[in-house]
């Protein structure tokens, strides 16, 4: 079977520039790479064909020979260019593949390199601090000092990790790239350099204080502004207050996670507060005024309507929690719980029995319920 024209294989014109050829190869190699075409049995062969074409057309001498003699330039019959593909075999895959390795695998391996040495320093880790507040503190907001165990920059070496603050030197294993490559068949595998752990540099004389890390463990005291209205799950970010970076690298961030403790009187739902208030049977029957507490430490007078039942709610507008972002406040809801008296004296019992005898028409809900029950039993008998 006749071998396809190399220009046709890459999908470019014969007069294409080196950049156009490289761009076309990058596109074809991405499309046909076996790892992306596990369901296509022909992908590997096509991938090899594309590599072979690019290995010739990327080289000026080989390209000139191919343009003049075609495939015969490399089959030994025309005295063609040396080092080209022979007998229809694949080209120098390692050489061709290396030119666009980072472009092909950038999305798999965190992006290609920028061409220079890797950053000398690694960013510090982000830290989490759990802060527990009372509901009153969450209502008012506050300035709070917290102690955070973390890593800070070593002052003995100014964060370089080297004794006396000396600059690190380029890693001899990876030549400052932070990664090493290994050839496996026609694949080039890239791994983090084991000598410098990906930093691209090493410390020849480590600092005695930080042992070459450029940072030491220490507790830090931080003053944190807690805004009014925070609730459980609220996250506050303090940029640059996390763990110090390796060898002078930028610090991470500190994230404060808020937990608001349960309250003995109030229950919270977003910006609204709920307060269950017990009232006596007589107060609920006759009506009257009661005083209820508010979250700001004050008191509010609430009028109980005559004949109130358990579960009845009344609203105090604007007496709830402040919104975290905005000047509005939620509401406070009073829920009545009519309390049945206990530990009655003989006189109280006699009065209640007398009241019961006189209150046949004062319990409409009970009258309606038992009327429905009687109708249910009668229907069952029928």
Automatic annotation (TrEMBL):
Family statement: Belongs to the DnaJ family.
Listed Gene3D superfamilies: DnaJ domain, Heat shock protein DnaJ, cysteine-rich domain, Urease metallochaperone UreE, N-terminal domain
Zn-finger segments (CR-type): 141-219
Alphabetized InterPro entries for the sequence: DnaJ, DnaJ_C, DnaJ_domain, DnaJ_domain_CS, HSP40/DnaJ_pept-bd, HSP_DnaJ_Cys-rich_dom, HSP_DnaJ_Cys-rich_dom_sf, J_dom_sf
SUPFAM superfamilies reported in the protein's UniProt record: Chaperone J-domain, DnaJ/Hsp40 cysteine-rich domain, HSP40/DnaJ peptide-binding domain
GO biological process, one term: DNA replication
Occurrences of domain J (ranges): 5-70
Highest taxon of source: Bacteria
Annotated GO CC locations: cytoplasm
A single MF term (Gene Ontology): unfolded protein binding
Comment on protein domains: The J domain is necessary and sufficient to stimulate DnaK ATPase activity. Zinc center 1 plays an important role in the autonomous, DnaK-independent chaperone activity of DnaJ. Zinc center 2 is essential for interaction with DnaK and for DnaJ activity.
Official protein name in the record: Chaperone protein DnaJ
Subcellular location: Cytoplasm
Free-text comment on the cofactor: Binds 2 Zn(2+) ions per monomer.
Residues binding Zn(2+) 1: 154, 157, 207, 210
Start-end of each CXXCXGXG motif repeat: 154-161, 171-178, 193-200, 207-214
Domain CR-type: 141-219
Protein's job: Participates actively in the response to hyperosmotic and heat shock by preventing the aggregation of stress-denatured proteins and by disaggregating proteins, also in an autonomous, DnaK-independent fashion. Unfolded proteins bind initially to DnaJ; upon interaction with the DnaJ-bound protein, DnaK hydrolyzes its bound ATP, resulting in the formation of a stable complex. GrpE releases ADP from DnaK; ATP binding to DnaK triggers the release of the substrate protein, thus completing the reaction cycle.
Keywords assigned: Chaperone, Cytoplasm, DNA replication, Metal-binding, Repeat, Stress response, Zinc, Zinc-finger
Subunit: Homodimer.
GN (gene name): dnaJ
Chain positions recorded as Zn(2+) 2 binding sites: 171, 174, 193, 196
Cofactors that this protein relies on: Zn(2+)
């Amino acid at each position: 079977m006749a071998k396809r024209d190399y220009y046709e294989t890459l999908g470019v014109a014969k007069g294409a520039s080196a950049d156009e050829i490289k761009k076309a190869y990058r596109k074809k190699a991405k499309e046909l790479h076996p790892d992306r075409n596990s369901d296509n049995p022909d992908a590997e062969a096509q991938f090899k064909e594309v590599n072979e074409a690019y290995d010739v057309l990327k080289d000026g001498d080989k390209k000139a020979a191919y343009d003049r003699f075609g495939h015969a330039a490399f089959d030994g019959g025309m005295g063609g260019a040396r080092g080209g593909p022979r007998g229809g075999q694949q080209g120098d895959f390692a050489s061709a593949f290396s030119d666009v390795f980072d472009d092909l695998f950038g999305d798999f391996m965190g992006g290609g390199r920028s061409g220079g040495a890797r950053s000398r320093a690694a960013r510090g880790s982000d830290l989490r601090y759990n802060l527990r507040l009372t509901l009153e503190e969450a209502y008012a907001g506050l300035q709070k000092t917290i102690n955070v165990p973390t890593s800070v920059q070593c002052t003995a070496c100014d964060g370089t990790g080297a004794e006396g603050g000396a600059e690190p030197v380029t890693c001899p294993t990876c030549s400052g790239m932070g990664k090493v490559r290994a050839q496996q068949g026609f694949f080039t595998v890239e791994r983090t350099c084991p000598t410098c752990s990906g930093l691209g540099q090493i410390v020849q004389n480590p600092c005695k204080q930080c042992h070459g890390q450029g940072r030491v463990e220490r507790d830090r005291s931080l003053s944190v502004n807690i805004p009014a209205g925070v609730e459980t799950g609220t996250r506050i970010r303090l940029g640059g207050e996390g763990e110090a970076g390796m060898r002078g690298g930028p610090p991470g961030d500190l994230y404060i996670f808020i937990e608001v403790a349960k309250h003995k009187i109030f229950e919270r739902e977003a910006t609204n507060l709920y307060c269950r208030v017990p009232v006596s049977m007589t107060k609920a029957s006759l009506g009257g005024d009661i005083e209820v507490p508010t979250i700001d430490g004050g008191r509010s007078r609430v009028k109980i309507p005559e004949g109130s039942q358990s579960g009845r709610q009344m609203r105090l507008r604007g007496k709830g929690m402040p919104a975290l972002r905005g000047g509005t406040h939620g509401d406070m809801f009073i829920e009545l719980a009519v309390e049945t008296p206990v530990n009655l004296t003989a006189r109280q019992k006699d009065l209640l029995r007398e009241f019961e005898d006189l209150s046949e028409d004062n319990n409409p809900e009970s009258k309606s319920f038992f009327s429905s029950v009687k109708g249910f039993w009668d229907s069952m008998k029928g």
